[in-house]
Amino acid sequence: MSRLVKLAATAVVTAAAFLPASPNGALAADGTIILGAAVSETGKYSTNGKHTTNGYNLAVERVNSKGGVKIGDKSYDLKIIYYDDESTPARGAQLAERLINQDGVKFLLGPYSSGLTKAIAPVTEKYGIPMVEGNGASRSLFAQGYKYIFAVLSTSEKYLSSAITLAAEQAKKDGREPQSLKVAGAFENDPFSQDVRAGVIDDAASYGMQVVIDDKLPKELNDMSATLTKVRALRPDILVVSGHSKGAATAVRQIAEQKIDVPMLAMTHCDSADIIGKFGADAEYTLCASQWAPTLSYRDDWFGSAADYARDFEAKFGYSPPYQAAESSASVLTFVDAFQRAGSLDPNKVRDALAATKMQTFYGNIDFDETGKNIAKPMVLFQVQNGQYVVVAPTKWADGKLIYPRPKWSDR
Fold it and tell me: How far apart are CA 30 and CA 405, in angstroms?
């Protein structure tokens, strides 16, 4: 299946790459709107790069199958030119320049990761090229005064805030004051995870919780032994981990190997790391931050409900969609909405239409503030229960009850 998907994506890229760009807004001679994307096919982000391109491709296929983009009395298909950024920021910036200056692309979709997005954003800003992205969550991206970047996802400081809130709620239910809780954190030394850390530290401080471990880990997060030794000794009430897919896999594996008991464990990137598929019972009771879940009640005219999207994605690609795919599809739909409301493919008019976006997609509500952040969509928190991801927070969308505390390894 993966080979067929890759071949299909390559065919789209090859077809798009040889279509001549025109000065009236990346319209090919046959009436096709060309989008550009530098995404990680190789390197450390290749797994999530695949999810990103699959999300983009599914949305393009769906839009084209339902009549394309309507601008005035004309309809246009979408196509994407892809390049492999090799999971390297400098390469991503170079490819953004190539897409704009050589391929004539007027509209960019984002790469995977905050680091790559940070590298590309100055390029799109320099040339006045709108970029809609769903995989660069670092809050520092939106403190630079950029006018051409728009992010459909919740920003990174919010990723694990729901876990701290959940721990506080649980403490109250147990007759404890939230300020009595001890928090341990392990965060990869990259822009995304350090922003996650900042949100955790701020949220813990708001409850008066004590942060007893605050570890900054190497970018290639292969070993957490030193952190886990401290967890065993200091016995925190909650351990939070952020380190992309590799960090999530490392944490689940080593916590199980070392039989580390902690009442609450929360982390990012569980689904993209496939912790259930890779670790089975060892992943049970882990709390997982997510931008999206198929059980949410959002819907749109392109895919229908969140559950409909999940069904269609799995039918095409052979696996359940992680949120990285869903937010990538939503990025394409956001561009489509802006094109149609702008009634034009002039980049500045499309940029202004993006800034005025207020819409709902299967992925969630989208409403950009003046910095380009989406202020209309909260995070959700899964817990792994019986080999399934079950939404347990926020309470409004919970479809299961939190299992707390995590059973000790000796009792499993």
Answer: 60
388 in the same domain as 333: no
Which of 124, 160, 196 lies closest to 287, judged by CA?
160
One domain for residues 403 and 274: yes
Residue 24 pLDDT = 41
Whole-number pLDDT of residue 279: 98
Q: Which domain holds residue 221?
A: 158-290+379-411
Quick one: CA dihedral 291, 244, 45, 92, positive or negative? positive
Report whether pLDDT(71) > 90.
yes
Q: In terms of C-beta distances under 8 Å and separation of at least 24 residues, what long-range contacts does 394-397 make, across chains too?
A: 394/162, 397/293, 397/295, 397/296, 397/297
- What's the Cα-to-Cα distance from 385 to each of 81, 276, 288, 294, rounded to whole Å? 40, 10, 11, 16
Q: What is the pLDDT of residue 27?
A: 55
Same domain, 210 and 146: no
Summarize pLDDT for 374-389 with one digit per residue, the tens: 999 989 999 999 999 9
209 and 353 co-located in one domain: no
Q: What is the Cα–Cα distance from 193 to 199, expressed in whole angstroms?
A: 10
Question: Distance between CA 395 and CA 152 in Å, rounded?
Answer: 22
pLDDT at 190: 87
